[in-house]
Amino acid sequence: DRMRDLMTDRVFVAPVVVQCLVVAGFFVYIGGSSIVLQTQLGISEREYTALFATNALAMVLASIAFRLLVVRTGAAVLRRAAMTVATLGGVALLAACLLAPDHVPPLPLVWAPLAVMLGGLGMFLPASTSITQAAGRRSAGTAAALGGGIPFFSGALTTPLTGLLGSLKASMDTKRDA
Q1: What tens digit of pLDDT does each residue of 68-105 get?
Q2: How far apart are CA 39 and CA 56, in angstroms?
Q3: 100's torsion region: left (phi>0), alpha (psi -120 to 50) or beta?
Q4: 3-state helix/strand/coil string of the chain
């Protein structure tokens, strides 16, 4: 009954849907970044580890910034800022790929926009969670379960597609090169 109540409430469902899309994108990054960065850009395992750790640190620092700013600024303003930052990082990454020879930019032109995107994500996730919890406060436990579970389920569904698409691309590249 509580679940049905929340899932029919647009004010609750809207931020959950947005969070599903964002978390699915994050899982694509987690599932596919090593394939792309090591196979396409040719970076070493050590470089990949440093890149991944730097991006994780960007997320942590942005989450801390959320914690420090939310009381004065509000979750909605911070979520909007986070999405703007992440989008700008994505646009910069897309531009770097489109403009680079063979669409393979140098590592710094990939690393920096990824860190910006993940920094945005580090602020987006707690902001979105706060907004979802506020919308479902009449059934807080159910809201927490749905608001956390559904986005991560969407991410879990997305991750295998990343590997499948990467395998298909590699197969197509092999046929083209033969």
Answers
A1: 999 999 999 999 999 999 999 999 999 999 999 988 99
A2: 21
A3: beta
A4: CHHHHHHCCHHHHHHHHHHHHHHHHHHHHHHHHHHHHHHHCCCCHHHHHHHHHHHHHHHHHHHHHHHHHHHHHCHHHHHHHHHHHHHHHHHHHHHHHHHCHHHCCCHHHHHHHHHHHHHHHHHHHHHHHHHHHHHCHHHHHHHHHHHHHHHHHHHHHHHHHHHHHHHHHHHHHHHHHC
Residues 144-171 have pLDDT tens digits of 999 999 999 999 999 888 777 766 665 6
CB 115 within 8 A of CB 58: yes
Closest CA to 93 of 152, 51, 47, 155: 51
For residues 128-142, give the mean pLDDT: 97
| pTM of this structure | 0.85
Largest CA distance in the chain: 61
CB proximity list for 131: less than 8 A, separation 6 or greater: 15, 75, 76, 79
